[in-house]
Design goal:
Layout (H helix, E strand, L loop, with lengths): L6 H14 L3 E7 L15 E7 L2 H5 L11 E5 L13 E7 L4 E8 L13 E5 L22 H23 L3 H27 L13 H4 L2 H8 L7 H26 L5 H15 L14
Parallel strand pairs: 2-5
Antiparallel strand pairs: 1-2, 1-6, 3-4, 4-5
Helix pairs in contact: 3-4, 3-7, 3-8, 4-7
């Protein structure tokens, strides 16, 4: 790895490119580098937006981004499968020195692409086209209280989909069991953990993308319990994680219900816990595909 360029060097480069190119009319930055509550470290991205004229002149020849330095890897989402199709173009660049710039080009003809995000900060505005961004804070990312329907749906889906994970373990279909558990069930657990954090901090903090700030905001005991919901692929460890998730979800959900004046459906939990224990005691032995010979 090359010696890592400093924040000042990176910002000077980003702005120099913009100042010297008449097609680039404005620059703003979002993301954690503007967040006074985010931990600051060497791995933070530079989330940069260039407002440009004639965006096609940039995307017709991508070599212009070489000015930012030698890269380890490049991703261009709009040139990949399922592009957004909004008229913008993104360059996600990881450089040989470890820095990363997520650079988005917005056509000047589409001011509606400029997000109303509390972390935005103007870096350059040649024509006065950017809105007056307030002092950056993380309020756009604060946990918001769920409606009663959203809360009850989260609870229902957590317990309902646990049966699918359980059957996957019992059938020794571990990829399915783990995907159902870590993809579907965990999403509901993460929502409930975020709402718990919101309840205990007046819904004025962010739990972070994919729960990255859980360690900061959850009581230490609950955070350790949350870590216990992870598992390797061994069935006995998967079962341990499943029941750890059940214990934690129940505790969080009861607290959130009391905080928001909602009703937690305890019977769903009682019934599903009984079913999970039954499935655990009855693994499928020697399961065969239809038509498979003895």
């Amino acid at each position: 790895m090359n010696s890592m360029r400093s924040e000042k060097e990176m910002m000077d480069l980003i702005l120099r490119v913009a100042r010297e190119d008449e097609r680039i009319r404005a620059v703003y930055m979002g993301g954690s580098r503007n967040d006074p509550n985010a931990p600051q470290d060497m791995y933070q991205d530079y989330d940069i937006v260039y407002i440009v004229r004639n965006i096609a002149s940039f995307t017709a020849d991508h070599s212009w981004i070489n000015v930012f330095g030698p890269r380890l890897m490049l991703q261009m989402p709009e040139a990949m499968r399922e592009p957004e199709g909004l008229g913008n173009f993104n360059y996600l660049m990881l450089f040989a020195d470890g820095n990363r710039i997520d650079l988005r080009l917005f056509p000047i003809e589409k001011p509606e692409l400029i997000e109303n995000d509390s972390l935005n900060r103007t870096l350059l505005d040649k024509d006065g086209i950017l809105p007056a961004f307030p002092e950056p804070d993380d309020s756009s990312y604060w946990v918001t209280p769920p409606s009663e329907l959203f809360y009850t749906s989260c609870c229902n889906n957590f317990w309902w989909c646990m049966q699918n994970s359980a059957k996957g373990i019992a059938r020794d279909e571990r990829p399915y069991a783990m995907e159902m558990y870590n993809g579907i069930v965990r999403a509901e657990l993460n929502d409930m953990a975020s709402w718990y954090i919101g309840c205990t901090h007046n819904f004025a903090v962010s739990s972070g993308k994919m729960g990255k700030y859980f360690k900061r905001w959850l009581p230490e005991e609950l955070y350790r319990q949350y870590l216990d919901t992870y598992s390797d692929s061994e069935p006995e460890n998967l079962w341990r994680a499943v029941f750890a998730a059940c214990d934690l979800f129940s505790r969080l959900a009861v607290h959130v219900a009391e905080c928001l004046g909602y009703v937690y459906n305890r019977q769903d939990e009682v019934n599903m816990r009984a079913y999970l224990r039954w499935v655990q005691a009855h693994p499928v032995d020697g399961r065969k595909m239809k038509g498979e010979k003895e």
